[in-house]
Amino acid sequence: MEWNIYLSGEIHTDWREKIIAGCEAHNLSVTFSSAVTNHEASDAAGDVLGSEENSFWRDNKSAKVNSIRIKTLIKNCDLAVVRFGDKYKQWNAAFDAGFCSALDIPFITLHDDDIIHPLKEVDASAMAWATTPEQIVEIIKYTITQK
Predict the structure, then answer these.
(1) Are the C-beta atoms of 100 and 80 separated by less than 8 Å?
(2) Does 107 reside within a domain?
(3) What is the mean pLDDT of the chain?
């Protein structure tokens, strides 16, 4: 079986690349998917539907266009990793975690211990909480290989 893993959340650090490289190093049978991680492209996803003077409507259209990709990829994943960084509030990541929970899709949260309290409900629904991409790789490795 090839596992399909969705990587959600923070886009400003290399945590995705570390997880992908770690899984490749262990020769794990996985594929990865993610939301669009180019901030400008994501913000402009709805521009094809016409320009907006009000930024609310531009954001609204782009969020809906982006959600086509996100919802489809989450619905089709075997496991999601939801990363919360320290620099920005990732409200979209919290939404993705809630969506996984509602669909009964297992997910792991990835964040530092200084934001445990604000994420307590999200972490309570997660199958695990990790603080490093290396821990995520070890969880994936165990899940797939039982080692």
Answers:
(1) yes
(2) yes
(3) 96
What is the distance between the alpha carbons of residues 9 and 85, in angstroms, rounded to a whole number? 8
Domain extent, residue 27, equals 3-43+73-145
64-116 pLDDT, tens per residue?
A: 999 999 999 999 999 999 999 987 778 899 999 999 999 999 999 999 999 99
pTM for this one?
A: 0.95
Q: What is the CATH number of the domain that holds 10?
A: 3.40.50.450
Domain count, the chain: 1
Question: Residue 44 and residue 1: Cα distance in Å, rounded?
Answer: 36
Tell the residue number behind the tokens 């939404």, with chain if given.
Answer: 95
Phi, psi (rounded to 5 degrees) for 111: -165, 165
